[in-house]
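Let's practice the habit of predicting before peeking. Look at the sequence and jot down your guess about where helices and strands might fall. Then scroll down.
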Amino acid sequence: MQLFFYAVPSMMLVVFALAAYRLVARARRISRTWANGLTAEARCLRMYTTTGGGSGDTSVHTTLHHVYEFTTSEGRTVRFEEKDGPATVLEGDFTTVRYLPESPERATALPPAPGRLAAGTGCLLAFLGVAATICVGFLVLTHTIFAESEGLMP
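Done guessing? Here is the structure:
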């Protein structure tokens, strides 16, 4: 029984740590691409949306996806998909993309906005930190309760 009260928050902490790692890695990759990447003209091949939520009392959220194709400076044709791109880019439009020569398939069509990227990453990291702190507090409280009631349990 006690294992449940330790295992669930511990697994949640692992998930929060993994999410924080992926969030920081994504921000670093995009920042590096903006700073050191090459530019190319890309064509938007497809634009579509996906929705999630909406069951019960939850709100619906919509995610905008774009599929782009461009040619690298070496002549290689690359196709990639990006979430949450600008809603002003429609199918058939041409736009500038930035990519790193060693990984052109991880290009981005997002216009450089380092402040916005830092603010968004910071807010999400703060949220994950608060959630992790709550889990640690729950673990400490659980340990204290079980330690104090050791002699009282049948």
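How did you do? Helices lie at 2-36, 114-148.
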